[in-house]
Design goal:
single chain; alpha/beta; Rossmann fold; nine-stranded mixed beta sheet; two-stranded antiparallel sheet; 9 helices; 11 strands
Length: 296
C-alpha cells in the first residue's frame, strides 16, 4: 500500500513540475490509489501513509474553500431549548424525488452564532458541483452557540470520552423538523464531523441510533457508554496517530470495542490534529462510502 502511494505521489509531482494537470485527472489518480489497493476495504482498519504531495493538497483545499457560501441558505431553530441554533442548508439543484440528507458538525473553533464559520472544508466539499453531480443531497450545517460535546477522562480505559451537551439535542430536533418540510429520504440520513463535531457524530449516533444510515468521525473523541446501540450503524473513524489535541488512543480503543464488521478505521500515519485533511479524503471518497449505506 505505502509503495503504491509513494510511487503515485512521485509520479503526480513529476507531472505537476513538467506540465499542467487538471483537477479531474488528479482526482482520478488519487481515487485510483484507493481503489486499486486491496488493503482499502469498505470496513476494517487501514493505515494510510503520510502524503508528500503538498501541491495537490494546497490546490484542492483552495478549490473546496472557494465554494460560494451563498449556495447555503440561512435559517434558525429554537427547538425545546431557550437558545436558538442557527444553520445553513444546501438544497440539490434538480430536486426530483427524495434525496439524502448529510449533516455536518463543525469543530470548536466555529462555535458562535455568525452563521458562517461552520461552513468549513467538509460542508463545502459535499456542496461542490463535482460531488453533487454524483451524490446529490441536502446538506445541513448547524452552528452550535456553545460546545456540542465535552471531554472527560474514562478512568477504566485510561482515555478521554465525550459527553453530549444540550445544544446537540437541539440539532437533533432540527433534523426531525426538516424531515417534515423537505423531501428527504429518511433511510439515507448521514452525519459527518471534524474534531468536536466528530465527537458529536458519535454522540448523535448514540442518542438516536435509528435515525442515521451511517456516520463519519474525523479526529474526534468517542462516547463509550452506548456501544451496544451502535452495533448496526456503519461508522467510519478517521484519525491521525500524531494527534495530541484529541488523542488518537480514544478512537483506537473505540474501534477495538466496537468489534463488528460495520466499522471502518483509517489511521493516518504521522498526521497531527489539524493536518488530517489529507488528499485521500478530499476526493469523493467520503460521499462514496456514505452513500453505500442505507438504513433498513
Amino acid at each position: 500500500m505505502s509503495k503504491i502511494l509513494l510511487q503515485t505521489t512521485k509520479a503526480i509531482s513529476s507531472l505537476l513540475n513538467k506540465r499542467p494537470i487538471t483537477y479531474p485527472l488528479l482526482l482520478v489518480l488519487f481515487c485510483g490509489i484507493l481503489s486499486c489497493s486491496k488493503r482499502i476495504h469498505t470496513f476494517g482498519k487501514t493505515i494510510i501513509p503520510e502524503s508528500t504531495d503538498t501541491v495537490f493538497l494546497r490546490k484542492r483545499i483552495g478549490k473546496i474553500k472557494s465554494v460560494n457560501t451563498d449556495v447555503f441558505t440561512r435559517g434558525s431553530f429554537n427547538g425545546n431549548a431557550d437558545t436558538a441554533i442557527v444553520y445553513r442548508l444546501f438544497k440539490p439543484g434538480h430536486i426530483k424525488g427524495k434525496h439524502p440528507l448529510v449533516i455536518v458538525f463543525h469543530g470548536s473553533n466555529a462555535v458562535g452564532n455568525d452563521n458562517n464559520s461552520q461552513l468549513g472544508i467538509l460542508a463545502k466539499l459535499f456542496a461542490m458541483d463535482e460531488i453533487q453531480a454524483r451524490y446529490p443531497a441536502f446538506i445541513l450545517a448547524p452552528q452550535f452557540p456553545s460546545r456540542s460535546s465535552n471531554y472527560v477522562p474514562d478512568k477504566n480505559r485510561n482515555v478521554l470520552t465525550s459527553v453530549p451537551q444540550p445544544c446537540l439535542q437541539t440539532a437533533l430536533q432540527l433534523i426531525d423538523s426538516l424531515k417534515n418540510t423537505l423531501n428527504i429520504d429518511e433511510k439515507r440520513i448521514y452525519v459527518v464531523g471534524f474534531s468536536m463535531g466528530a465527537s458529536s457524530v458519535i454522540n448523535a449516533l448514540s442518542l438516536k441510533p435509528g435515525l442515521f444510515a451511517a456516520g463519519i468521525s474525523i479526529s474526534g473523541i468517542p462516547q463509550f457508554d452506548h456501544i451496544n446501540e451502535l452495533a448496526n450503524t456503519p461508522i467510519w473513524l478517521i484519525h491521525g496517530n500524531r494527534d495530541t489535541e484529541n488523542p488518537f488512543n480514544s478512537d483506537k480503543q473505540f474501534y477495538m470495542e466496537l468489534n463488528h464488521n460495520k466499522t471502518r478505521f483509517w489511521e493516518f500515519d504521522h498526521l497531527a490534529h489539524n493536518d488530517i485533511f489529507a488528499p485521500a479524503i478530499l476526493t469523493d471518497e467520503l460521499p462514496k462510502w456514505l452513500f453505500k449505506n442505507k438504513r433498513k
